[in-house]
Amino acid sequence: MLTDMEMEKLSRRLRRIKGQVEGIEKMIDDHRYCVEVLQQIGAVRAALYQVGLLMLESHSRSCVVDAIKKGKEDDAITELMGVYKSLHK
To answer: Which Pfam families does UniProt cross-reference here (predicted)?
Structure first.
């Protein structure tokens, strides 16, 4: 479960990402150079990846730890690895 501080940090990052995506849309509308647009797309992907890592860390520290304490380590690790793999597609 996310703490209030983690929630605020993620919200700030997501608002920044939203602004970046809107900026990309404007760049396309303005017929900006393709490489510039692609660089911004890369920046957004990297920013989203960081959000994913923050979520993964929070999940690991709370939900996974709780599952292990309850003797459900196999399920927790299987789920965790599935999420990790999805972040790296």
So the answer is: Trns_repr_metal (PF02583)
